[in-house]
Predict the structure.
Amino acid sequence: MKSVIWKTQDGKGRLNDWYDRFVDKIETEVSETIVPTRYGASHVLVSGLENGRPLVCLHAMRTGSPFLVSEMGPVLKRFRVYAPDLPGQSIRGPEIKLPLNDNSLALWLIDVMDGLELDQVNLFGVSWGGFLARLTATTAPARVSRLALMVPAGIANGSHLSGLMKMVFPMVRYKIRPSSSNLRKLLLPILSTWDDDWAGMIECTLRDMKMDLRIPPLASDQDLEQLTMPTLVLAGENDISFPGRDVIDRLRGRLPNIDVELMPECKHSPPTTDAFREWLGDRLSQFLDDPK
């Protein structure tokens, strides 16, 4: 079968191995469920506090749900986390690439929420998942009680020239000579902290996962002004993909109920440290528990 996600059967196996490896990192018991959607069956990881309030979490592009959930240990002690694998962006996601210039992805996520019997949720999205979270909140605001975005795509983009210099040339060099040294040079502009497992997983995706070069379109001012629910935005100070100051400047004044924070020295991929995980858990809990 020809796939829109993996290149070869052997590559599919390696991608699944990394997926399972990160599932094993999750600190609380994990269950899996399949829910029907208009675009086919969709896989969801469920973990966290058994009777906790639901928090739907959306992962970044070319990763998968356990890669996000494994970084959310403190959050799992306070919430029931539902993490679907996104279409075309995860080895366990639906085998389809949905358009980015309409609400197809949002309709998919609404179907997932319906399948999980979640009427209204707190929604947290990272990077590409942040784009989908914002799109869903714009499409169906009544389904999202609170919206949290971290290094979100689709708000403000970085310089194409700067991105070319910092990522494309190192990518070409790595493709020609895929050494550990060239992998490190490729990833240093986007990783806030070095992590061997994350680097190994990304190396696997570079070898075994098909490229999707589409960039989520920027939300219109009208789209943003529809986000009337409480919204938290955590932006990276040194994010070359979606510069934190530009993201915050665009959102301030357009969202009526917004809480923003510029994460110091944070690149596009936030730190993978216990200290950052604790901080994120506290920051999300503070926002989600706010009675206002």
